[in-house]
Amino acid sequence: MKNLFVCEFERIWSKKSTWLLFLLIPFVILASGKYYLSHNLEVGLTSAEFTSVGNFPAATIQEQLMTFFNASALLIIALAITEEYRTGEIRMVLVRCKSFGQLFVCKIFAIFTTIFMMLITYFICSLVIGYFLMPRVDNIKIFYYDGFFTISQSFIYGLKYYSYSFITLLAFASVGIFIGIISRSITTAIGSGVGFLLFSLIYPQLVYIFSSIKGVGTMKIQMLSITHIQHMGIAMALGERSLFFGWSTLILVVYIVVFITTSYVIFTRSDKNI
Amino acid sequence: MKDLVISELERVWSRGKTKGLLILFIGVTILWGVFMKQSDMGFYDPDTIMKLNSLNFGVFIVRDIHPLLVFVVLPMLYVDCFNGEHSLGYYRNVMIRPYEKWQFIVSKIITQMIVTFIVVVIMFVLTTILGNLFFNKVDSTEFFKVSGNFSFLGAFIYRAKYYFVEFVILISVLSLSALICTIIPNVVLAFMSIVGFFIGGIYVLGDDFFFFLSSGKDIFDVLGNVQSYNFYIIIVSFIIIGITSTLTLWKRKDFLY
Question: Given an 8 Å threshold on Cβ–Cβ distance, is B76 in contact with A35?
Fold first, then answer.
């Protein structure tokens, strides 16, 4: 089991695209840092939107989580799952006496580990780049908190933010794995993955326009989309009053459980791999 | 050359994916029409809005269907044509025929232009029908950035022009996709690079690039003659750079493997 995991992990890392994604991270942070520097000029020093050294890691992941990280998760999944059994590479693994179930478990753990490593790299890079790029402010205002944070407190907040981001990415990756397993070709897998991403982005706006009473109920329905949780839900859940913390965690867990079990069943029952 | 294009078109149509995408595209367009009937607002930008009617509906839906085209439907078609066939090896069966190397890629580009044109025409016809079915019928309507009322025929011509500009924007997407697919040999990577290029461009180059994400406002500006020169420069240079470098790279490619 452990060897199979190591093998899967090595196969993810033997692809140039994985390295490319990791090399892209500093540039993505620089691009969004440039954006936040210009945005700083428009907001006041005491606004939660003002980005400084302390809250740069949390601020810079907020938008990139929806676009860059979700897309990278889709890319890793499509290469690790769909491409392998479309091109037949997976046969080389299956000649060993391992079951489909074991292979599936190792595969998803390897994917999750890679995503986790990406987040850590992003966090470290954003700390370093933020230190050089961003203005230094001692009293930091954070979304959904009344008081001010010191730099060390906001560092802890950043760690919490990244851990919760990891759970949302797991949920998105579960959907991606499901799509990757049922798709019959690589383009279908990646196209429907991007389609799902676009739909998740549009869905909260649709709900907002359609609903007549814009209250707590509407926000709960909007939260059904993973990207909406990534965009606003994390900050709300980690805020002072932990708005919707239970609800959004429940949604994420349901996403993970439902899609991973369905994919497991499909992956182990079907014989299209052979 | 003509036979190559016909063969290419037949192969595009023979994929189940194409039919699936077509159904998805038509379905989403109809659903979005129903949805726009509910909200009954046409956007120029988030602050400038106009009530919808049977004559101007076709124009305002482009703004929302555009991302679906640029990020899902068209890249899937382009990647399959420019990259998938070649990197999976199906294209060898075509390349054994006695044509020049450049003729193959030119036939592919022409085919995808035809496909894009068909997609735009489908959208045009569909939205014209939807507009007449769902929205209250009026004799004349107004548009943004152009003065005066448009009668039935005038509005039809305006819509046709509008869709033509949309088609030109999609052609610039096509030529860039062709270039990216020629450089990057892997299907998944090529797809992601196309999507990433158009989204990343907004971060790097700023709002001049925004019409790839949502084209409505820019086309109104073009038809009202108030568009900035950057728009034309980006579109024309993308088409020229995309197609010429695809041709050069394709001719130099080693097809022996």
Answer: no
Residue A30: its chain B contacts at CB < 8 A?
Answer: none
What's the pTM value of the predicted model, to 2 decimals? Answer: 0.82
CA atoms within 13 A on the CB side of B77: 32
Nearest to A152 by CA among A138, A165, A141: A138
Pick from A32, A75, A209: which is nearest to B192 by CB?
A: A75
Which of A190, A195, A209 faces B192 most closely, judged by CB atoms? A190
Residue B129 φ/ψ, nearest 5 degrees:
-65, -45
Contact B188 A185 (CB under 8 A): no
Locus of tokens 């995991």: A5
Per residue in B36-56, pLDDT (tens digit) is 887 777 777 777 778 888 888
ipTM (interface pTM): 0.72
B97–chain A nearest CA distance, Å: 26
* Tens digit of each residue's pLDDT (9 = 90 or more) over B123-136: 999 988 988 888 88
Chain A nearest-CA distance from B152, in A, is: 30
- Per the CB < 8 A criterion, the answer to whether A112 and A170 are in contact is yes
Write out the two tokens for A45.
């020093």
Contact B127, B23 (CB under 8 A): no
Token pair recorded at residue A27: 């540039």
